Amino acid sequence: MNWLSDDAIARLQTASALPDVAGTRYRLVQRIGSGGMGAVYLSEDCILGRRVALKILDLPDDSGDLAARLLREANILARLEHPGIVPVHDAGTLSDGRVFYAMKFVEGQRLDRMMEQASPLPDRLRIFQRICDAVAFAHARGILHRDLKPENIMVGSFGEVLVMDWGIAKILRDPEGATPGAGSEVGDAVTAAPVKTAHGTILGTPGYMAPEQARGEIETLDERADIYSLGAVLQFLLAGVPLAEGSSNDESSSVARPLAAIARKAMAADAGSRYASAARLGEDIAHYLDGLPVSAYPENIFRKLVRWSSRYRLAIVLVITYLILRTLLFLWSRG
Amino acid sequence: MSEDTKIGGPGGKFPATRWSAIQAARSKDPAEQSRALDAIVAAYWKPIYKYLRLRWGKSNEDAKDLTQEFFLRLVEKDYLKSFDPRKARLRTFLRLCVDRFVANEAKAAKRLKRGGGAPHLPLDFATAEKELKRAKAPVGSDSPEDALDEYFQQEFVRNLFTQSIEKLRQLCVERGKELHFRIFEAYDLNDEERGRLAYADLARKFGLTTDEVTNYLSYVRREFRDIALIKMRELTGSNNEFFQESRALFGVKPK
Fold first, then answer.
1. Is the ipTM beyond the 0.90 threshold?
2. Distance from A163 to chain B by nearest Cα, in Å?
3. What's the CATH code of the domain at B47?
4. Which of A150, A189, B171, B246 could form a cystine bridge with A112, CB 3.0-4.6 A?
5. What's the Cα-to-Cα distance from B125 to each of A9, A257, B5, B67, rounded to whole Å?
6. pTM (two decimals)
7. Mean pLDDT throughout A3-19?
8. Chain B closest-CA separation from residue A254 CA (Å)
9. Which residue from B minimizes the CA distance to A7?
10. In this structure, are residues A44 and A27 in contact, taking their beta carbons and an 8 Å threshold?
11. Which of B12, B18, B218 sits opposite A97 (nearest CB)?
12. Cα angle B238, B241, B243; round to 5
């Protein structure tokens, strides 16, 4: 045959890399993201006439391991019906052999990109509360995320917050409460083959993963690893930049001390010193927003007074104004 | 490569073949060894020849002899025995072997007059030489070493795609789908026609509907990809290497 030009090679590569959705209800619109094993495509569900996001393996998976992981991720999402977790609609295999699943297309911004624009601290903290709610729900369903970071959190155009990318999640126990074998990571028996990660394997993102996760202690990881990651996300929301690896949050920064204390407690090197649950972490943030004491920050009488006066500032101003007026009236009536 | 290789499987279009030339090359069965060498030679002789010309500045005749001799040594010295897919990709390994081989040859400076008695492989060097003149020189990367690596990879892909297209053509003829192949050829392979042909033009040209053109192209591209993946499967030593190389083959870049 004739010589194959670089342009022809590029065309063949592009055409071959594109998933073949012929025979499905979907039509690819554009590639909107990519990861270690696959890509996400904005697509149209031609039957329901709505936009969805298709996560598809890059290529047919010869060993079946990646396909099992992707189906397992879909299976986990299906178990986690929560407003803060992206819902999955469908899963299957394309005619070209690639495994895929369809999920809600979230219009909005990734948290890290959203933070490039200035937003008020209370808004950032409310976003964080919603992340904690979603993670607490997942924990209650026996699932660890293991890769919480701003890049995996979407903030929708209506303010909804969704935790994404459950690709390396770990199932601690099934919804009925039975605990699978220590450290096992199981998929649904019908749709996804069991996936097990060897002890010592490091999964996660540096800067956001707990020390025990970074050491590859896969089998003993529990909810507290996610609490650490939540602390790192909080730190990012407070400082606007990710925490440098190996550093600790800075006391001298402009971050309010109770918030710094919350992040510090969530990110304690010793898992036992962290919050017992994502819900408790979220509660501390709610307390801070309401001007209430936070569990991570013990107060002396002076700090209590400062917080109390800050919380009731308007009432205090009104009372003082009233007292001054009464005094003036009293002095005027005497004079 | 096996002629009875099945394209597609019952559950989809996975490459059904699990045969690996790397594993077969280590087999004790001479037939398997020979088949493995054929697969490796077919995939790599052109990239290696061109690499010798560019990287080592060898003349046409020297590069021909060195290419032949390299594959001879590959068998005699059992180079593949030391290949570990966990440590490197086959193409990287072979490129390093070529470098070492040429350096040793130069150092010894007592090479026998090549061609004297060595069983020559039937390689079409004239075509390779023409291609060498048409391909872009290895430039534009961060370092000369990276540029050469990219060049070697691109030539490997060109060679593998060329062989896959030839196999695809045969397959289409066998299945009575010559028209499918001609559409693929016009739209995906022909640089001159690609710029001016839309699906509607192809439909007019071949007397089809636009939907039929879409379906025909989709079919041929899928078969092409499966053939290329089967060839890649043969040339990798582990599932991980296959996955990584397949991604590179189709230009899939991680974020």
1. no
2. 19
3. 1.10.1740.10
4. A150
5. 21, 74, 28, 10
6. 0.67
7. 86
8. 34
9. B191
10. yes
11. B12
12. 110
